[in-house]
Amino acid sequence: MVLAGRMVATESFRGVLVAVPVVILQEIAPKLSRMDLVAAVDALIADSNGALRRVPLETLREQAQAATGRGAKKLRAAVAEARERVWSPMETKMRLLVVDRGYPEPLPNVEVRDPDTGTSFFIDLAYPEWKIGIEYDSEQHRLDKVKWQKDLHKDEVLHGEGWIVLRVSIADFHDSRYFLRRLEAAIRSRKQQSSAP
Q1: In terms of residue numbers, what domain contains 174?
Q2: Are both 129 and 163 inside the same structural domain?
Q3: pLDDT grade, residue 16 (50/70/90)?
Q4: The last residue of a domain, from among 81, 104, 121
Q5: Between 158 and 18, where is the model more confident?
Q6: Mean pLDDT throughout 16-38?
Q7: Quick count: other Cβ atoms within 10 Å of Cβ 150?
Q8: How far apart are CA 81 and CA 35, in angstroms?
Q9: Whole-number Å distance between alpha carbons of 107 and 126
Q10: Strand partners, 133
Q11: If you average pLDDT over residues 19-29, what whole number do you get?
Q12: Collapsing DSSP states into helix, strand and coil, what is residue 197?
């Protein structure tokens, strides 16, 4: 297949010949912001809720390493920042925002079980060692009654298990000052608790 004037690797997907995902990512890399490109890679390698055809992270790393030409360097940088358990673009963006501001990298989609019901919940971004969770709430969380009810139950379980839960929205992404102050206070509180005799 020829794409942008060069021959590219292809594969069959649902009976259609398409360029392999790494080629498409390299092609769009110059046009995307760093965060959007990492989010695209996260979606492609996600172990759940991602692309229809998942590409293992190790495979994508090898393919990106071999890539040459326009967009290859930016793609390699994005693949290095990608994580397999990120299940939404805003989880990617909030994770990168936190890391870019100098905080330790939170783990994506950490599982916590309700000890009473056995129900599993996943915290969008978490610091398990400090029991601090960051939950990104989209507009859908507010409008979907089932999601809202699950979020209430999740909060109840997490608080009962001693977690600090920081709920964030798109406003916190665009103006992160107050969210980062809350995160700083939560980390400081947990560090003080762990160092207390």
Answers
A1: 89-195
A2: yes
A3: low
A4: 81
A5: 158
A6: 86
A7: 14
A8: 10
A9: 5
A10: 126, 165
A11: 84
A12: coil
71 and 147 in one domain?
Answer: no
Pair 66, 94 in one domain: no
Average pLDDT score over the chain: 89
Beta bridge partners of 121: 112
Is 168:135 a contact under the CB 8 Å cutoff?
yes
- Same structural domain, 185 and 99: yes
Q: What angle is formed at CA 97 by the lines to CA 135 and CA 23, rounded to 5 degrees?
A: 105
Structural Rg of the chain based on CA atoms: 19
Q: Which strand (E) or helix (H) includes residue 132?
A: strand 132-136
Other C-beta atoms lying within 10 Å of the C-beta of residue 87: 19
User: Domain holding 173: CATH number?
Assistant: 3.40.960.10
Q: Three-class SS of residue 4?
A: coil
pTM of the full predicted structure? 0.87
| High-pLDDT (> 70) share of the chain, % | 89
* Alpha carbons 79 and 92: distance in angstroms, whole number: 12
pLDDT at position 147, please?
Answer: 82
Residues 6+ apart with CB under 8 A from 128: 107, 110
- pLDDT at 75 (0 to 100): 96
Alpha-carbon dihedral sign for residues 137, 142, 146, 148:
positive
